[in-house]
Amino acid sequence: VTIELKNDIRIRGTLKSVDQYLNIKLDDIEVLDLDQYPHLSSVKNIFVRGSVVRYIVLPQAEVDRGLLEDATRR
């Protein structure tokens, strides 16, 4: 997934978990604008507080529609 934060940092990584507050845990992250944020180059795992997230982009090919539809029925 790719997430964009309210401070314009864009991070791509493997989604590990999301809680009810939309706090997100990502593994194997890559900062897309590394020239602007070189201090994040050594970070591999990250926890992002839900209140600082602007967008979350899920690749359509990786979304399990059956699982998603089943989860929304609960």
TrEMBL record:
Q: Which keywords describe this protein according to UniProt? A: mRNA processing, mRNA splicing, Nucleus, Ribonucleoprotein, RNA-binding, Spliceosome
Alphabetized SMART domains for the sequence: Sm
Instruction: Supply one GO CC term from the record.
Output: catalytic step 2 spliceosome
Q: One of this protein's Pfam families, by short name? A: LSM
Q: Which domain of life is it from?
A: Eukaryota
Q: Where is the signal peptide?
A: none
* Keyword presence, Cytoplasm: no
Which GO terms are recorded in the biological process aspect for this UniProt protein? deadenylation-dependent decapping of nuclear-transcribed mRNA; mRNA splicing, via spliceosome; rRNA processing; tRNA processing
Where, subcellularly, is it found?
Nucleus
Please give the Gene3D superfamilies that the UniProt record associates with this protein.
Answer: 2.30.30.100
Which residues belong to any copy of the Sm domain? 1-62
Chief subcellular location: nucleus
Q: Which GO terms describe its molecular function?
A: poly(U) RNA binding; U2 snRNA binding
InterPro entries associated with the record: LSM_dom_sf (IPR010920), Sm (IPR047575), Sm_dom_euk/arc (IPR001163), U6_snRNA_Lsm2 (IPR016654)
The answer to whether UniProt assigns keyword Ribonucleoprotein to this entry is yes
| Sequence similarity | Belongs to the snRNP Sm proteins family.
Query: PANTHER family from the xrefs?
Result: SNRNP CORE PROTEIN FAMILY MEMBER, U6 SNRNA-ASSOCIATED SM-LIKE PROTEIN LSM2
- Quaternary structure annotation from Swiss-Prot or TrEMBL: Component of the heptameric LSM1-LSM7 complex, which consists of LSM1, LSM2, LSM3, LSM4, LSM5, LSM6 and LSM7. Component of the heptameric LSM2-LSM8 complex, which consists of LSM2, LSM3, LSM4, LSM5, LSM6, LSM7 and LSM8. The LSm subunits form a seven-membered ring structure with a doughnut shape.
Q: What is this protein called?
A: U6 snRNA-associated Sm-like protein LSm2
- Tell me what organism the protein belongs to: [Emmonsia] crescens
